Amino acid sequence: xxxxIELKAGNLSARIIPQGxxxxxxxxxxxxxxxxxxxxxxxxxxxxxxxxxxRTENDAIRVDGQLYPMPMHGFAKDSIFETIEQxxxxxxxxxxxxxxxxxxxxxxxxLVLQYDLSETSLQLxxxxxxxxxxxxxxGFGLHPGFRWPLDPLHHKEDYRLSFADDxxxxxxxxxxxxxxxxxxxxEIENGVLHLxxxxxxxxxxxxxxxxxxxxxxxxxxxxxxxxxxxxxxSQLILWTRPGSDLLCIEPCYGFADPIGFSGKYCDKPGLxxxxxxxxxxxxxxxxxxxx
Length: 291
Prior knowledge:
The protein has about 290 residues and is mainly beta. It is about 0% helix and about 45% strand. It has one helix at about 100; strands at about 5-10, 10-15, 20-30, 30, 45-50, 60-65, 65-70, 80-85, 90-95, 110-115, 120-130, 135-140, 140-145, 160-165, 170, 175, 180, 185, 190-195, 205, 215-220, 225-230, 235-240, 245-255, 270-275, 280-290.
């Protein structure tokens, strides 16, 4: 536990661990926002998804005619990041390609995550750099699990998800953590999705092309809320296990393999393609508010 990094700014506090560069705790006015892991449901709090999101077909990727085994959600969540900077309100961690990562992902990379805590929000800046000689193809996602409800005085059905720029959302249901072929439309009145467990009885919801780059998870009485801003991310996943006190709101750049996908990893749509010597940056901001 000595490796845990603790950040503090005003009424906000956060704890990050080098394994997976994972956010273990985010508290506002003493109220914890992240759920408590349960191995029967999901044994994590805020996983970093890299270089893939979800599952790949046959749990492998095809690069230059060769198959490489790929764990679900990639290997970053199980890797030890090096802490390269740390202060009272920020930390910077990095993962660099090595012999172990090359067994799964034959690309050179440097993945840097910087957490900055202010009195109003936690900001995560992600920088993916390509130090190699070939184009680096990758995805990235963040998998935070929030308490649902945020405040025990509320019921789960009291909660909403407000989308900044959508009134109709096209979605699919993942099958075994892969993208299914069906497409459905979900109409939301004034951009507000009323949350209930019935939405998740079949599985999660994958929004493949939402207009919004910001959502707010909040109680109907506005006494508890979390806003997620993710300006560069093109997909959003919602997931829970009915009966749990968990709601995952996952900004993603890229998505899981469609069922039956047999193409080259580099040809899969939705991924970032980073030229040699260049970097790619993504930003996420989590803004909690309790009244």
